[in-house]
Amino acid sequence: MGGSEIQAMLTRADLEQLDRDDPLAPFRGRFALPPGVVYLDGNSLGPLPRATPERVAEVVTREWGEGLIRSWNDAGWIDLAARVADGIARLVGGAPGSVAVADSTSVNLFKLLGAALTLRPGRQVIVSERDNFPTDLYVAQGLAAFLGGKHTVRLVEPGGVMDASGDDTALVMLSHVNYRTGAMHDMAAVTRAVQGQGALVLWDLAHSAGAMPVDLAAADADFAVGCGYKFLNGGPGAPAFLYVAPRLHPALRLPITGWLGHAQPFAFEAQYRPAPGLTQAIVGTPPILSLAALDIGVALALEASLSDVRAKSIRQIALLAAMIEQAAPGLFRRVTPDDPARHGSQLCLSHPDAYAIMQALIDRRVIGDFRAPDILRFGITPLTLSYAELWDAAATLGAIMAEGAWRDPRYAVRKAVT
Length: 418
Ligand SMILES: *Cc1c(COP(=O)(O)O)cnc(C)c1O
Description:
This protein has 418 residues and is an alpha/beta fold. The protein has helices spanning 12-20, 52-66, 71-74, 77-92, 105-119, 134-146, 161-164, 187-196, 216-219, 288-303, 306-327, 354-363, 387-403, and strands at 38-39, 99-101, 125-129, 152-156, 169-175, 200-204, 223-226, 241-244, 333-334, 346-350, 366-367, 369-371, 375-379.
């Protein structure tokens, strides 16, 4: 039952049958989700793996409390970032050593944009899409200003990067899956076209890593970044990752040069010398507690077959869209492309009162999110979401619309985080 197969009226029993046949169903028990909550926001903050509290407590009590500074060696803290990075490399199709885990996605963007501009000294333009995630655009704008105004950030409408890039383009920076609409680029085709013009390409995998098979090496991508707290379930503010194609490592120079990126940090030399490969991207002391949590999330993602995850995501998006249409006919406009080859792992619907409707949904324990100006965003995380829950989410939305429950004035009050 996917896309075009959904014609007849669906019943909850149909969805329960899909759950019985679901090869990913056992993963649900590996996460500690509160009972009665339908969680459709794992693309914004992944849920808590059951193994995480105990592991983090062990790192705090035993490794920190008893081991003290010895744990950098004895508990393997000094290599933890590299071990987690190699797991993420497998998830995104990178060779061992092509991914580093450090800092936030925003800071990693700064590091890689700086590196890209140094690799293309004669070119001054970074091209991106106007509806790319704002932090990506802000970091590019900040870097261009910092470099004294010689560089510019050129923003184009979605899908327009090739028309806007040319001899002056150093880098094209794109999100593989758009955070607001769920639209997905053809990574290999865009990479080829950009490189054909002599520019480099950077992919933001915030909404792809752990959500679907990604093959950076096969696409021959130059750079990528991504989040640890979304589909990788590393917890709030989990360290992010960056990818650099191995062919670029010898010439790579990052604009933040810290002691743990030095060739010999414990020689305490006065002169910076970059460590080989991506070790130079580990700028300062890694956040061990957060890395321990991310390690668990990444290990869980590695246990699952990402092609099963992708197949279930595509099917769940088609079903959720069909069931919402069945429960609230004609009320929402689908923003996410219909074609599975062109969408990520979320369903986005627009409605003029999207904010209040989402607040009413959250009040009834169906948690998605709102993205300005008018989008209801439902993240699909196949490791935790059952088919029957999607039925319940659609039925709850149908009831809220039929009753007009979202008109309650308290749902119009904007919170700081949407
Ligand atoms: C979530 C997200 C980010 C977040 O960046 P942080 O520095 O981790 O806050 C960046 N880019 C995209 C495309 C995102 O979806």
